[in-house]
Amino acid sequence: MATLIKSNKTYQGDAAALPSPQAPMPKLASLYLDFEKELYIALGRTTGNAIRSRRLADVVTFTRASETTRVNKSGLIEYLASGEAAIEYDPITGECLGLRVAAGTTNQVANSENFSGSTWTKTNVSTVAAKTTAPDGNPTAS
User: Fold this and answer.
1) Are strands 96-99 and 87-89 parallel, antiparallel or unpaired?
2) Number of neighbouring beta carbons within 10 Å of residue 98
3) What Cα–Cα distance (Å) separates residue 50 from each residue in 2, 4, 19, 31, 138?
4) Separation of alpha carbons 90 and 73, rounded Å
5) Distance from C-alpha of 50 to C-alpha of 58, rounded to nearest angstrom
6) CA 35, chain centre distance (Å)
């Protein structure tokens, strides 16, 4: 399999980190995504030339309207910006689980993050703002 690379920019990264020109591309496939090895290949729609990268964003376009969280390679919860793909990892083993795709949702509850808010009816309970540490490490959980 030959690799044809066309670019109007000089590659600024470590060339050793690029996928091999002999990286696998299944027969008759137009897209190959190996999340575990971070190897992504796509065939151009008009040219048929292979685009190979270690960055998913170089090969596919991903959109999401808001930020999200994921478990990263280290087993920690981290925030991802809107539009950044959530490659999920097992929090115990660190094994790559692949791309997490979720349906769009809308929170219909006013002040759902603020249990001290006046819109909530509290019966036989009390709330204390920022009493404990949230999953992101900030002292914002109630």
Assistant:
1) antiparallel
2) 14
3) 9, 7, 12, 9, 43
4) 8
5) 12
6) 11
Output the six-digit token pair for 20: 């091999």
Q: For the ranges 15-19, 29-33, 77-81, which has the lowest average pLDDT?
A: 15-19
pTM, entire model: 0.54
- What are the boundaries of each domain within the chain? 15-58, 68-99
In the block, residue with structure tokens 């914002």:
140
**pLDDT tens digits for range 63-112:** 888 889 999 999 999 999 988 899 999 999 999 998 888 877 777 777 66
For residues 142 and 114, what is the distance between their CA atoms, to the nearest angstrom? 8
**For the purposes of burial, counting CB atoms within 10 Å of the CB of 103, is it exposed (0-12), middle (13-18) or buried (19 or more)?**
exposed
**% of residues, the chain, pLDDT over 70:** 70
Residue 5 — pLDDT band, cuts 50, 70, 90? very low
